[in-house]
């Protein structure tokens, strides 16, 4: 099982970052995919998702600023983040939507840290 997120970093408010995720084919081909984030001391939440057919939905807090996309041939999903705000600071994870479960628990791969300074 592979869920590998990358592309995070430090950026000033108003800047942009592009996150990328490679997923196992067994996950990618059967599911919608999503990007989640978890800020320190807060719950992990879904910020954007995309179905196999390409239909997207976004959390209200990122609408108009974030764009999710997927490449079905490469088993990758990307998140373009524009006009970043300090409140976007979090660890970002990719996963299926809803998250895949292994042995009764949600499975999470390695996330990528995004830090936005004011």
Mean pLDDT: 95
Q: Give the helix proportion (percent range).
A: under 10%
What would the principal axes of the Cα set say about the shape? Answer: globular
Q: Compute the gyration radius: what is it?
A: 13 Å
The count of β-strands is 12
Give helix and strand order, one letter per element, not per position.
Answer: EEEHEEEEEEEEE
Low-confidence stretches: none
Fill in the keyword field for this structure.
single chain; 6-stranded mixed beta sheet
Describe it.
It is a single chain. The protein has 118 residues and is mostly beta strands. 3% of the residues lie in helices and 52% in strands. It is built from one helix and twelve strands. It has one helix at residues 25-28, and strands at 3-6, 9-12, 17-23, 32-38, 45-50, 56-58, 66-71, 76-81, 90-97, 101-102, 105-106, 112-117. A six-stranded mixed sheet has the order 2-12-9-4-5-6, with no helix packed on it. Strands 1-3-8-7 form a four-stranded antiparallel sheet. It is globular and about 40 Å long. The model has no long low-confidence stretch (mean pLDDT 95).
């Amino acid at each position: 099982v592979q869920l590998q997120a990358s592309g995070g970093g430090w950026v000033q408010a108003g800047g942009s970052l592009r996150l990328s995720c490679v997923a196992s084919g067994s996950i990618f081909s059967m599911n919608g995919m999503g990007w989640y984030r978890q800020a320190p001391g807060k719950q992990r939440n879904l910020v954007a998702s995309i179905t196999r057919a390409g239909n997207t939905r976004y959390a209200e807090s990122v609408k108009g600023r974030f764009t999710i996309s997927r490449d079905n041939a490469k088993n990758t999903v990307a998140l373009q983040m524009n006009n970043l705000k300090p409140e976007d600071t979090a660890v970002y994870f990719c996963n299926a939507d809803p998250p895949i479960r292994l042995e009764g628990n949600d499975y999470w791969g390695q996330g990528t840290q995004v830090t936005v300074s004011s």
